[in-house]
# Entry
Amino acid sequence: MSAEYVHGYGPREGLRLHDQAAALLELLHSDTVYPEGHSVLEAGCGIGAQTEILARQSPGATIVAIDIEPSAVAATSAVVRSEGLRNVSVAQADLFDLPFAQESFDHVFACFVLEHVARPDLALQKLRAVLRVGGTITAIEGDHGSAYFYPDSVPARKAISALVELQARANGNALIGRSLYPLLRAAGFHDVTVSPRTVYVDGKRPDLAEGFTRNTFTAMVEGVRDAALAARLIDASEFDRGVTDLRRAAEPDGVFCYTFFKAVATKR
# Structure
């Protein structure tokens, strides 16, 4: 029940994901810390960009990172080896057919995962089953509908909409951030707290203009160009103009804003 990963698994996407993790570390993960001796399941580890952050911020916790994609498992394993992360193990596993006994973990961490599965409601139920009573789940997702920028651009908004539509056609949901609260409640979690984490970028933040506006968000949109054109969601000239206008928002007199949603909930 996994959806197709519309961004692909190539080197360019890997670089984008690492840029994203570095740019957003403080915003998304400053309060993601697990106690010594606790076990954490990272569901959908991807290329290990978040895995490294988890391991370094909670060196006393034991982290099991899983992904269904073999190349992602290989990439995360390489990160674990190269960075000497002794508190991490990596395995290939299906989120909907987890190879763990019920109540095996103290915590579950899922970052940018639910947007790429066809049944996020069922995925949360599966994750809840392997979580111990009293344990927590942390889910972080973006919402492409939250993006706005200056100067405004109709072609840029159409290019973003093409990405949203492609992900919907692949059984994913690029707007899922706004749905985390009801999804977690429906899956049986309690004490659900959702906090919006807004990236605001203007001329005073050239680091974020480069790391997020250009290298994360705009690169993500640009990466679906061929698929968007093939699906006839937008014509080439308008898509290219949209990408150019998104880059323009990263200039010293431009503004870019995007909201992520971080949810934490408990299993009773």
Notes: The CA atoms of residues 23 and 207 lie 8 Å apart. The mean pLDDT is 93. DSSP finds nine helices and eight strands in the chain.
